[in-house]
Structures are given as structure tokens and as C-alpha cells.
Design a protein that fits this description.
Layout: H1 6-15, E1 17-22, H2 26-39, H3 52-57, H4 65-70, H5 74-84, E2 88-98, E3 106-109, E4 123-129, E5 140-142, E6 155-156, E7 168-169, E8 179-180, E9 187-191, E10 197-199, E11 208-216, E12 229-234, E13 243-245, H6 254-271
């Protein structure tokens, strides 16, 4: 499948998001959905006491081969390369799954708020639908053009019905200006980390299954302190700001699990900064290894 057309590229630059990019055909999408739902039945890290849903929700490419493989999908990489250029790394891979009838929401937010990457333009989130992600199913909404400003103030609410780790919210968004990013199975949206976005409850009769991949360039960490990890998936990294990882070698490999813990411990220093005792995703449960319980600071 081709990279983005000039019109698609212009729309992304103008709006900060682009929806409806086809990356998988119907047969492939059905197969991938079946693989994901089979993965959900895996017992997880029995020795460490962590269910498979933790790995599916946070940095799964480190320990789950399917998730690392999906992040290397040529059609996705071609589209992302149209925006970011030829040198691409994967920072995180996650599944966002909303069950039918679940009324949890994701409030208006910007992804870059807690990522420790500054206000960079050198990142893109790819959101791939493995089910029908309609308005009724709680597809994402975007505020066109909002990526052209800086990172704005977010209020941490810790609301129970909010899927974000802090329940963070941008107040005063003009809902009438929002655009829906509905997706058919096998379609993808792309959005900028400063673009305001949110999603509603899944009021459909089917699960809402989304694969979310965060792509960055080597330049993102050129002037950023601390350590972070990424998987090189295209081109080269001659900047040297990232610690490179190869991706999962096999399912929940012991060495990969140890790396997973190390990555989460490093990322939690940034992602939970200022709310370490309030963000449950970043608190290790009693008896669990260091870093266990960390999670993404943004959701869809």
C-alpha cells in the first residue's frame, strides 16, 4: 500500500491528525483480531504475578513478539515515514480495548504532556482499528489545528470513569469544533502528540480494539536528559540519544522481562513525576519486581 498522498500529508500538517488510512485488508484484519483475542488468554508472567493485560497495555513490543512484529508493518511505516522521514524508532506499542457497554471515557488531553520529550514535532501516534471503531463505539475525537500551539495546562482529576492514568483533562475545549476519527477494521489514524484528542464510551455491541504505536525519530532525544528506550524499525540512528532494543525474542522471555522492568522503572521517573503516590499504574504492588505496575500516561 502506498505512502501518504500529497493531499493526506497536507491534511495532517493542517489538522494534526489524519483518519481513514488503510493498512490491512479485511482478511488480514480478521486474522490479527483472532491473534489478539487468543493472546488475551495467555496466563502472563506467572512467576512475576503479572497478567497478560499489563504487557498488552504497556510496552508490549519488549516481551510480546506479535506486538513487535505489528510495529514493523510496512504499510504503517510507509505512512509514518511520509511525515517523520526515513529514520524511525518505536517508543511504545499498546492495545486499547473497550468492551461493549463500558462507559469509561478518555478526556481531552495532549499525549506529550507527561512523556518527557518536550514539544517535539518528531513523533507520531498510529492508531490501528482491528474492529469497527465507529462514533457509537467511542472512536477518537480531535480538535483540528490544536497541534500548532504548545503544551497547555492539564488538570489531574483521577476520576474513576477516566481511562487516563491521572484523569488529566484540558478544560474549556470547544466541542463543536471537534472532528470524529471513526475507523473501519484495518484502517489507521495518525495524530500529533500536541493535538487535543479524546474518546467516548463504547455503546456499540462489539469490542473496540485498537493497536497503538508511538513512532519517534532519533532527534527527539538529541537534547533531552535521562535515559529512554526505543526499537529501531527503519533507517539509522546516528544521533545516539536512545538506548536501542531489538524487540521481543519470544513470548515473555526471561531476559526480555528483565529489560521490561528496567524500561518501566526508567520511564516511571518521568511519566509519574509529581504524582507518584496517586497514579496506581506506576506503583509496584507488594511482592512485585521493581517497575512492575508502570503504564502509559495517555490513552485513547
Amino acid at each position: 500500500m502506498p505512502a501518504l498522498s500529497p493531499d493526506q500529508h497536507a491534511a495532517y500538517a493542517r489538522d494534526g491528525f489524519l483518519a481513514g488510512v488503510r493498512v490491512f485488508d479485511a482478511e488480514t484484519t480478521l486474522r490479527l483480531r483472532a491473534e489478539v483475542e487468543a493472546l488475551e488468554k495467555h496466563p502472563g508472567d506467572e512467576a512475576g504475578g503479572r497478567p497478560i493485560r499489563q504487557f498488552m497495555r504497556v510496552n508490549g513490543h519488549v516481551v510480546v513478539p506479535l506486538m513487535a512484529e505489528l510495529a514493523r508493518t510496512p504499510a504503517i511505516l510507509d505512512a509514518v515515514e511520509s511525515i517523520l522521514g526515513p529514520n524511525l524508532l518505536v517508543w511504545s506499542v499498546e492495545f486499547f480495548i473497550k468492551e461493549p457497554g463500558v462507559k469509561k471515557i478518555v478526556s481531552w488531553h495532549q499525549d506529550l504532556t507527561y512523556w518527557g520529550m518536550g514539544e517535539t514535532d518528531d513523533e507520531v501516534t498510529a492508531w490501528v482499528a482491528l474492529s469497527d471503531v465507529s462514533v457509537e463505539a467511542g472512536c477518537m475525537r480531535f480538535l483540528p489545528g490544536s497541534h500548532k500551539g504548545g503544551i497547555v495546562k492539564h488538570n489531574d482529576t483521577f476520576a474513576e470513569d477516566n481511562l487516563l492514568s491521572r484523569g488529566q483533562v484540558i478544560e474549556g475545549v470547544d466541542e463543536e469544533k471537534a472532528a470524529y476519527g471513526a475507523l473501519k477494521p484495518g484502517e489507521m489514524s495518525l495524530h500529533h502528540g500536541r493535538c487535543f484528542h479524546a474518546s467516548g464510551p463504547n455503546m456499540s455491541d462489539d469490542r473496540r480494539i485498537g493497536l497503538v504505536i508511538r513512532y519517534v525519530t532519533p532527534e527527539v532525544r538529541a537534547e533531552v536528559g535521562g535515559r529512554d528506550y526505543a526499537m529501531l524499525v527503519r533507517g539509522v540512528d546516528e544521533v545516539g540519544g536512545w538506548t536501542h532494543i531489538a524487540g521481543a525474542r519470544d513470548m515473555l522471555n526471561a531476559a526480555d522481562l528483565a529489560l521490561y522492568d528496567r524500561i518501566l522503572a526508567e520511564q516511571a521517573k518521568t511519566l509519574a513525576a509529581g504524582a507518584e503516590d496517586k497514579v496506581a499504574l506506576y506503583r509496584a504492588a507488594p511482592g512485585m519486581r521493581a517497575g512492575q505496575g508502570a503504564g502509559a500516561a495517555a490513552g485513547m
